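Is S-adenosyl-L-homocysteine placement plausible here? Inputs below.
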Amino acid sequence: MTTKQRPSFPARLDAKPVATPAKTAVPVLKSVPATPQGVGMDSSAVRMRMVQKLQGQGVSHPLVLGAMGAVERHRFVDSALVNQAYEDTSLPIGLGQTISKPGVVSRMAELLLQGGAKGPHGKLGRVLEIGTGCGYQAAVLSLLADEVYSIERLRGLHDKARENLRHLRLPNVHLLFGDGMEGYAKGGPYAAIISAAGGDRLPQAWVDQLAMGGRLVAPTVMPGSAGNTQALLVLDKTPQGIRQSILEAVHFVPLKSGVA
Ligand code: SAH
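Reply from A.M.:
I modeled the complex. Tokens:
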């Protein structure tokens, strides 16, 4: 089930995330030498504008801002959608699934970093992502954590993520094909667990595989809500027990069981 990504190509993440809070809140990123098709002259400038918008929405963690500025989102979407890659919108990635909005990816990443157990470098230890999709969020997480285990239940998307990430040198990202509702016990316990798909209950395996002091962030269908309204659920595993809070409404693809 586990396959490590160890491609030989040089990294295409065009900047390292800023590890310490900078005087200017937006990290300075060096520009991309190549001109990506359809994204204008310089994709790093477009990303920088996206990062500024994210800051305007309240995202402030320097590691998160650095990662959002570094990962080339346009390389994860269909060529016909490249022009929309840096808008704050979800986009289709095939098989009825979507890449999450940058606003949601950065919001959830920040929630993880605010809660999950971190090392001296300020990064999370091991992170489990449910719903690899096109692999974009896994690439973002790779800059925020020591190890990223990412599970996808659709073979077509698992393969697509593998292809998308091939050119990135991300030895700390482990792509897995399987049912994420079972988690991935071998990689745990996890400092943080993040789901990119929402179900009406939280799988017990996720809670079990969360480390003490760890944080889980997942969209969850609100019980009894009309039209299956989802909200972000934040769960902390503390020595005093499980603490949960429900945050803002969100809209994610459904969490499904089994593989296809
Ligand atoms: N993080 C992704 C978002 C993909 S959308 C990205 O950056 O592109 C959510 C994904 O969750 C979909 O690809 C869907 O197939 C997947 N998914 C839904 N239920 C799942 C499950 N039980 N296990 C693993 N993946 C699941």
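Short version: Residues 12-254 form a domain with the Rossmann fold fold (CATH 3.40.50.150).
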